[in-house]
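Worked problem 6 (solution included).
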Amino acid sequence: MLNDILTSMLWSISPFGEAKVGIPYAIYNNVNHYLAFTLCFAANVMVFPLMQFFLKHINKYLLKWRVYKKSAIFVARRAKLGAGKNVQKYGFWGLLFFVMMPIPGTGVYAGTIAAWLFGLETKQAFIANTLGIYLSCIIVWTLTVLSFQGVY
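Solution. The predicted structure is:
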């Protein structure tokens, strides 16, 4: 069971799934529903400070390499395209709503990049991302639990 918990947490910090994958994975593998929610949510929240550190300190050095720069521009354009209008127009609430949507391409990675690109204050961006992750986790957790009970 410890392996399933660790794997679900790794999915929750992964840009390929976040808690949208971690929570269902944990519940599917018989991890306690509440423990799955709590640990996957916490792991997903940890992405924000890691991404902030990366964007503020490491990104500028890696931009010297052509391959990285090309990839970074691609990711920045996708984040700007996906969240740009909402974040630019509504700020905090636009970012919260963007991160909250439990669909691929939204989440804390894109939300952190969008907040950084549009110059949102770090504390405000963290709160918007955390609340967005929380609401997204509630949606995913509820649908997963209901589907395992045969309701959905």
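Discussion: The chain has a mean pLDDT of 91.
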